[in-house]
Amino acid sequence: MHVLTSLVDQCSSLGMPVMAEMLVKREAGAHPSAEDIAFAARIGAELGASLIKTPYVPPAEEYRVVTETCYVPVVVLGGARADNDRSVLTGVDDALRAGAAGLAMGRNVWQHTDPGGMTRALVALVHGRATVDEAFKEIQT
Prior knowledge:
This protein has 141 residues and is an alpha/beta fold. The chain has two domains: 1-67, no CATH class; 78-141, no CATH class. Helices cover 50% and strands 10% of the residues. The protein has helices spanning 2-14, 34-46, 60-69, 85-97, 107-110, 115-126, 132-136; strands spanning 19-21, 51-54, 74-77, 102-104. A four-stranded parallel beta sheet has the order 1-2-3-4, with helices on one face. Strand 2, helix 3 and strand 3 form a beta-alpha-beta unit. Helix 2 (34-46) runs parallel beside helix 3 and helix 4 runs parallel beside helix 6 (115-126). It is globular, with a radius of gyration of 16 Å. The relative contact order is 0.13.
């Protein structure tokens, strides 16, 4: 916590926003609950983060507790490289429907066989409010 508050103080003096990646530690194979993620996100906001980056855990109806109880924008992290493009897009769509402000994705873009297409698909979901089927058409598989 001290590292985050120190960073927030330094960035604040420069007028720079801080995105805090708030993760919940669990035993191997166990997934955190939406309530656990909401608690971690709220801590990040309370410590001064301008934006929270955290994992999405389905279903969207339960994840909504994260976005509704955190008073700064929540973006969803990309996580491990997925084998199925449609599942990535569906997860993003679900997170957006649950109130996520956007996403911060790495591996599922730059390790993709068509990074440009995956980027276009994600932009279509986040900014164009496309359906998963419409976004999927942007990817050349």
